[in-house]
Amino acid sequence: MLSETVRPSSDARPGTSPRAKPTRTPGRRPWRRALRRDWQLYSLAVLPLLFFLTFRYLPMLGNVIAFRRFRPGGSLFGEYWTGLRYFRLFFTDPTFWSVFTNTLVLGALTLLFCFPLPIVLALLLNEVRSRALKRFVQSVSYLPHFLSIVIVAAMVMQLLSVDGAVNQFLGAVGAEPVAFLQQAGWFRTIYVSSEVWQTVGWGTILYLAALTTIDGDLYEAARIDGANRWRQTWHVTLPGIRPTMMTLLILNIGTFMAVGFEKILLLYNPLTYPTADVISTYLYRVGIVSGNLSYAAAIGLFEAVIGLTLVLSANAISRRTVGTSLW
Amino acid sequence: MVSTDARARGRASRPRGIRPTRGYRIFQAVNAVVLTGVVVVTVYPFLTIVARSLSDNAYIVAGEVNLVPRGFNLTAYRVVTSDPTFWVSYRNTVVYTVVATLISVVLTTCYAYVLSKRHLRGRTALVGIAVFTMFFTGGLIPNYVLVTSLGLKNTVWAIALPNAVNVFNLLVMKAFFESLPVELEEAAAVDGLDTYGTLLRIVLPLSKAMVATMVLFYAVSFWNSWFAAFLYMDRQDLLPVTVYLRNLLAGATDATQTGGGLGSADDIVQSAATIQSVTIVLTVLPILAVYPFIQRYFVSGIMLGAVKG
User: Is the ipTM of this complex over 0.95?
Assistant: First the structure.
């Protein structure tokens, strides 16, 4: 055991034996040796693996109920095959296409605002000369990230109520009070602005970190070439944080379909369904509230597959074009 | 992680000696205004909620409470704090957070430690099993069916187990363990410690800051979570404070709808407004109280994860 635990090199490739001496019989033998040597390490992985298999992979398999008839209280995997019945059902369901469109619109708006604004804020913060001021703005702007989504929704409701702060400003300029949360026309604005409010500050962290790694000589060289501040930002700073931008963009695209389910669930109501209802909230109502679990699982599976496809393609495009990829 | 002197160097390298142009001075002024705006917009909702929580109902209904409390009184605070349900939910939040955080930190630490061992056979597969779940999950319905059929409804396990390991946190911790010097563990092995001993006596004592970060990551997320409890807890006395607040909000919204919008139901809705504000203040207070102390752990944790990811 003693000599076994001593590693000759720390950067041995995974899957290759750390020993210089090659084993004579490849195949089954190395596994047996690995188990004998590292059984304690493997034993530490048992409980986490059990978690992943039970609560991550089993539900993936559980998606077969999208193709099967599910009876509450019956088998986890349903009773008998129904083929694509549930998929046909939702493809011909007009509500599905309405929530599908809402999902795309909200996802696109979120991407449009929540992806670039942290970059802008980080660039602005980067130009602040006073250390204390910068630190202060950072601390304040990170705060909303730590709040529960319920609190954020509660604040939105208070601010936008008929007697709330926003309507007081409207009143001050002589406008009629608006029942914002009861009007479908306002939902997207409310959703996206509260999302920006909660995420923009926290989103700057990675960019600020990337900004500090840009080589100062590059600015020097740009200055000698006659670049002004703006051109330095354009030609030095932005290319410097491009890998971070691409990584976050891919991740953002990956969550495109999973628009803030919890927040929408808290903020929407039947009056705002026409713009607020998204795939995830719809399948929540269909599946859990009304109990059509197979139908809802079919919708969920469809959404998850689109999400996975989006990440994979965004990643592939990014790797081809700018050489940044998640793995 | 970004050290402060690296930051200082980066800043010093910007043109200092050259006289700032007029355009740049204007930019600095505009920038200061914009950043002040960011601060104001971030803080404003908090202030107006506090003002509402301390005001008299009549002034709120009249739309006269903005940043300054009108008709100052603490009645609503007394009403909320004398509601036993509120304290029961608060206690539930604490219990759920402690139990779930404990499980999560133990599982994450164990798995991250295993994944950090580069020589381990099958390590790539073990990493892959975790990372794949970042991009593809079973989804709401199969999870709901699973948790229900495991009989976890109305127990703390329905909250703790389905979200026990967060893959991002796992990768942060794995990156940290990989950064520890190998020599330490080699020495431990020479001294006759097995893997368990090395982890408990050598690695963990060196990782106190990292473990603290993990505890905070998980604790804040469990403290803030509401949907699992909302989904799996049927009894009032099992709800955490986030769901208590949610039900308060939903009650107010329902009242608005059944009352035909803004007309007759005003009384119910408005009397709820102070109560809602007080509940928001009391729920957000613990987070605000610890925020100054935990913020830097979060920032450094995120950076460590980013270097890796």
Answer: no
pTM above 0.80, yes or no: yes
Contact B199 A44 (CB under 8 A): yes
- Are A60 and A297 a contacting pair, CB within 8 Å? no
Instruction: Say if residues B60 and A163 touch (Cβ distance below 8 Å).
Output: yes
Structure tokens at B136: 């593809």
Interchain contact, A247 vs B133, CB within 8 Å = no
**Which neighbouring-strand residues pair with A285?**
none
Contact A190/A180 with Cβ under 8 angstroms? yes
Q: Report yes or no: A33 and A271 within 8 Å, Cβ to Cβ.
A: no
In this structure, are residues B139 and B179 in contact, taking their beta carbons and an 8 Å threshold?
Answer: no
Task: Give pLDDT tens digits for A164-202.
Answer: 888 888 888 888 888 898 888 999 999 999 999 999 999
Owner of token pair 């008998």: A80
Q: Do B34 and A124 touch (CB under 8 A)?
A: yes
pLDDT of amino acid B307: 61
Element (H, E) at B287: helix B266-308
Measured between beta carbons, the chain A residues lying within 8 angstroms of B142 are 58-63, 65, 297, 300
DSSP B299: H
User: Which positions 106-135 of B are in contact with A (Cβ < 8 Å)?
Assistant: 107-108, 110-111, 113-114, 117-124, 126, 129-131, 133, 135
Counting one residue from chain A and one from chain B, the pairs whose CB atoms sit within 8 A come to 335
Predicted pLDDT at B19: 64
Length of chain B equals 309
Q: Which CATH superfamily is domain B78-309 in?
A: MetI-like (1.10.3720.10)
Q: Token pair 């739309």 is at which residue?
A: B63
Please provide the CATH number assigned to the domain covering A95-321: 1.10.3720.10
- For residue A299, what are the CA distances in angstroms to A67, A69, A287? 11, 15, 10
Nearest-CA neighbor of B280 among B20, B96, B80, B79?
A: B80
The pair of three-digit structure tokens given for residue B6, joined into one six-digit string: 């690296």
Domain edges within chain A: 28-57, 95-321
Closest among A206, A144, A123, A308 to B224, alpha carbons compared:
A144
Q: Where are the domains of chain B?
A: 17-73, 78-309
Burial B4-43 (b: 16+ CB within 10 A, else e): eeebeebbeebeeeeeeeeebeebeeebbeebeebbeebe
- Report the C-alpha gap between B62 and A163 in whole angstroms: 7
